[in-house]
Amino acid sequence: MSVNRLEVQMKPRNRLIKSLALNLAATIIALYLLVPGGPIYSSGRIDLSFLLLPIIGYFLLRLAAAFGLIYIPSRAGYAVTCILRGAAAAFFFYWVFAKAILLTRVPAFSATSTFLSGLGAIDVFAILFFSGTTLIAVSGLYKMHTRERYFGPLGISLGLFFIGISLWRSVAYFSINWQPFEGIGLILMIGFSCVALSNLGRWGDKSANTWIADVCAWLTLSPISKFVIGAMLAAYLVFLRPFLFKYVSYAFLIEWILICLITDRIYKAIHNMLRERHTAVLIEQDWQKHIQQVDDLIDEDFTKIGLLQREFVESGSRRGLLNYLKQMLRNNNLSDDQINEALISLIEYSDKKIPWYVVWIWRRRKIKQNLVNRQSALNATINKLADWAHPVYPKNRSMI
Hints:
The protein is an all-alpha fold. Among the domains are: about 1-115, no CATH class; about 300-390, no CATH class. It has helices at about 1-35, 40-45, 50-70, 75-100, 115-120, 125-140, 150-175, 180-200, 210-220, 225-245, 250-280, 300-315, 320-330, 335-340, 345, 360-390. Helix 4 runs antiparallel to helix 6 (about 125-140), helix 8 (about 180-200) packs across helix 9 (about 210-220) and helix 12 packs antiparallel against helix 16. Mean pLDDT is about 80; it is low at about 1-10, about 295-300 and about 390-400.
């Protein structure tokens, strides 16, 4: 037992020593290569000393992030680490972009002065971009906690919005050299805005209002598809629509047909989702002669747990089942850690997302696979609970 405890204590120290060695080695190599009079300068009379500050600052901030991860406990340490790593990347790219024109000292970059001067004009957007990625990383630490679940989606959505703005303005700046860059930047901006809006759906996916919960559940389903939809819509408005209305006589009719097709596809996606969430599959059985029999009365709680299990397996709704099991385990004097350990299969379970463009037999196949996965998660949970209650009880139990 003492050996294991010693190994646990030594792991953070080893991680810190490794990070310290790597960052110091990288700093020393950068100093040796880039200082005036160093190997690079001596070989071609090229002064790249302006890169020393961003490189050294980057590695020092990364080293500080390693200290934060080891010496600051719990989520706070991870948050500090994410912030320092984001600051390191933002500082490095901001400084390099701001001084990029100095790279023309290198013969290989002498013909790219226009591009390098453009990097100097978008250096602020490098900070905005890495601010967005940092905000996403920090907010991701909070999105799974019930009391803080509103902070996580909001922070992630703001981070995505910052990334979209930075990419839009950065790409659009180079439209002075090629006009379509303005439209490409706008497409990226709208695509990331759609993903941000999709992530905000997590605010209401567990709402008591069924309509709000269903709409938010549809929003959170497959954020990548939302990005594709937004990007395609922006591409149509920016590039294709002006061309159609200029050269095609029936462009107005074509546009309305496209709108009708997209609306129909969205309606079917929402309709299928509502049908899956609020209806149960009807299983037909053969008729047989009625035989009167006397049954024992079943406890009301037994009936309730059976209904909650069926609700989870058939529709994927696990909130009622989890609340019931947590209350039952608390009544049996189990701690929160023990409850989480017992219900981990249900807590961590999530359906495989079905993209909106999957139709017909492939959609039914994915729906059936989700049903099988829910049954497996439920079986694993009941097996664990049964083992805790009756350790010698065999594991070949039927659930429903």
